[in-house]
Design goal:
Blueprint lengths: L2 H17 L13 E5 L6 H17 L2 E5 L7 H14 L3 E4 L8 H9 L4 E4 L5 H7 L5 E4 L2 H15 L4 E7 L5 H14 L5 E8 L4 H14 L5 E4 L2 H13 L7 E5 L3 H8 L5 E4 L2 H16 L7 E3 L3 E4 H4 L2
Parallel strand pairs: 1-2, 1-3, 3-4, 4-5, 5-11, 6-7, 6-8, 8-9, 9-10
Antiparallel strand pairs: 10-12
Helix pairs in contact: 1-4, 2-11, 3-4, 6-7, 8-9
Length: about 325
């Protein structure tokens, strides 16, 4: 484990000891209160997830608390929000963690209080979960390694197995970022004629995607392809490509199938994006949490279907 991660977890554990010394109260509502904590609401991906969660809450007859920090990289804010809601009293927690390791200590407190935990979208780090003894009821999300592979395979096929390519990664060390990266590298590694010449972490952010791509193009003006581990970074990258006069000559594949990415696909600025159905993740998270609270058995994992969305899927 990295030193910064160990330090952050130590701080969280100290905060837990102080925070929960103040006492807690039980949920006052007769209906179960399900906390659904995601990374941000500034990314449309999580707004779609919220729509699914709200639909699930209506069907299950539960109270939904759907919250997030302002910034997707603000792990400390997400930890603080979780501690606050645990102190107020909730019946279950559904969480898409901003940090795969850092959210484990506060979730252990949920375990101690008998509050079931459901892991959504970004997996909590399996090694940290096992080491700390965190009990998770279920994971609802996607096979991110396979999604990265699908995007990489599509790019390799469009390039005819030849050319220089680059990658914009998410947050280093975060499960979905690392697995999308691994899947992409596995796919392009099947084509000896493809060379990965650059890889930069753009932190899931559109502006950082623009900056990273501008830097890459200055060094590799003959770049032929690009994989972005989410659409927000891709939307920034295609601005840099356009400003360099390279639109149409660099094949871009991406991940999440946001509406803005669909428009870019229709315009020929992005070749494809991987759809992973965040609405279904939100819906199933709430429905399964409600079922568990009723005493029903819940499977330990649900992997949503992945789809490659290109112009053929969007334009009749």
């Amino acid at each position: 484990m990295h030193t910064s991660t160990r330090s952050r977890i130590a701080i969280v554990l100290a905060a837990l000891a102080a925070f929960f010394g103040c006492g807690t109260r039980e949920p006052s509502s007769e209906r179960p209160r399900i906390l659904f904590l995601v990374k941000t609401l500034s990314n449309p991906f999580f707004l779609t997830m919220q729509e699914g969660a709200e639909r699930g809450a209506r069907e299950a007859g539960v109270e939904l608390i759907f919250i997030a920090p302002q910034r997707e990289t603000d792990i400390d804010a997400q930890v603080g929000m979780l501690l606050d809601k645990l102190n107020q009293g909730v019946s279950a927690v559904c969480i898409a963690p901003a940090g795969s390791r850092e959210l484990v200590p506060p979730l252990l407190e949920a375990n101690r209080r008998g509050i079931p935990v459901f892991n959504i979208d970004n997996r909590l780090d399996p090694a940290t979960v096992e080491k700390e003894g965190l009990r998770l009821v279920s994971y609802i999300g996607a096979d991110n390694e396979q999604g990265g592979y699908l995007a990489g395979r599509y790019l390799a096929e469009k390039l005819g197995g030849q050319g220089k390519v680059a990658m914009l990664e998410g947050i280093p060390g975060v499960d979905n970022a690392e697995n999308r990266k691994a899947g992409f590298l596995r796919a392009v590694g099947e084509h000896p004629g493809i060379k990965v010449v650059a890889s930069q972490a753009a932190m899931w952010d559109q502006d950082k995607g623009y900056d990273a791509m501008a830097d890459i193009l200055r060094v590799y003006p003959d770049l032929a392809g690009l994989f972005c581990a989410n659409d927000m970074m891709a939307l920034g990258a295609i601005r840099a490509i356009e400003q360099a006069g390279r639109t149409g000559s660099i094949i871009v594949t991406s991940y999440d199938n946001l509406v803005a990415a669909q428009e870019a696909i229709k315009a020929g600025r992005i070749a494809c994006s991987i759809e992973q159905h965040p609405d279904l993740m939100g819906y199933e998270g709430v429905v399964r949490a409600a079922a568990y609270l009723r005493g029903e058995a819940v499977p330990p994992e649900l992997l949503v279907n992945l789809e490659v969305i290109d112009k053929s899927k969007l334009v009749p």
